[in-house]
Amino acid sequence: MKIGIIGSGNIGATAARLFVGAGHEVALSNSRGGQGLEDLVGELGSKAHATTIEDAARFGDMVLIAIPFGKFSTLPADAFKGKVVIDTGNYYPERDGKFAELDKDETTSSELVSSHLKEARLVKGFNTIYFKHLATQGDSSKSLEERRAIFIAGDDSKAKEIVARLIEEIGFAAVDSGFLHEGGRGQQPGTAVYNKDVTAKQAAALLSAD
Ligand SMILES: NC(=O)c1ccc[n+]([C@@H]2O[C@H](COP(=O)([O-])OP(=O)(O)OC[C@H]3O[C@@H](n4cnc5c(N)ncnc54)[C@H](OP(=O)(O)O)[C@@H]3O)[C@@H](O)[C@H]2O)c1
Q1: Adjacency order of strands within the sheet including 2-6
Q2: Is 67 in the pocket of ligand 1 (CB under 6 A)?
Q3: Cβ 56 vs Cβ 63: under 8 Å
């Protein structure tokens, strides 16, 4: 599969390494038109190249967004049309600036991203896992229930299935927390599952705790 990576820092670069390791092709991007990613591209080899955000989004059958959440409205929505999009973002007002509708809990960060990327098939995912755990804790030799959980939420069940398959390919287990509005809310900073290092088997208990 071709995967566009929007933002190639802690989460984007870690995911790109895992995706290439699983045999996928990645287009990496950052805020500088892909400049500064030469070492990462060199490390990843022929299955990776660096480009602009727009071209990375157009390249991917799937697109992973891993930029500071507050910048979401700068993304070129047209380029994400029809794509399965993984939104890894979390709202941190001190970093992202204040969003009144989030502070009042009227909506969630991923719903804002989804309204901006109107025609994307958005799945919230990879947002609860610390990037160092993502880098080291995948283990395809384990059964799905003994693997580390990566929580996903979204309204497009086919898109969630595609993301879940990718998660399994990189040695984790996808745990579906539900639709974007409620499930996604249950994956945000401060929730029971956020930044928790749990197996898929343990995950169900955490989800019901919220
Ligand atoms: N760190 C974690 O463990 C972790 C875990 C789960 C979820 N998250 C969430 O994932 C998102 C990314 O976090 P991170 O830790 O990976 O961040 P990071 O290491 O700071 O990397 C951010 C990346 O986004 C790019 N970027 C910044 N502003 C941009 C813009 N306006 N347009 C396009 N690209 C832009 C940066 O490009 P330049 O280098 O050119 O600035 C960089 O490649 C955040 O929402 C974070 O809350 C993080």
Answers
A1: 48-50, 25-29, 2-6, 62-65, 84-87, 121-125, 149-154, 173-178
A2: yes
A3: yes
Nearest partner of 13 among 64, 85, 70, judged by Cα:
64
For domain 2-209, the CATH architecture is 3-Layer(aba) Sandwich (3.40)
Is any ligand 1 atom within 6 A of the Cβ of residue 69?
yes
DSSP state for residue 62 in the 8-state scheme: E
Nearest Cα neighbor of 79 from 40, 127, 27, 36 is: 27
Q: Which residues pair with 27 in a beta bridge?
A: 4, 49
4 CB within 6 A, ligand 1: no
Model pLDDT for residues 127-158, shown as the tens digit of each residue: 999 999 999 999 999 999 999 999 999 999 99
Local confidence band at 204 (pLDDT 50, 70, 90 cut-offs): confident
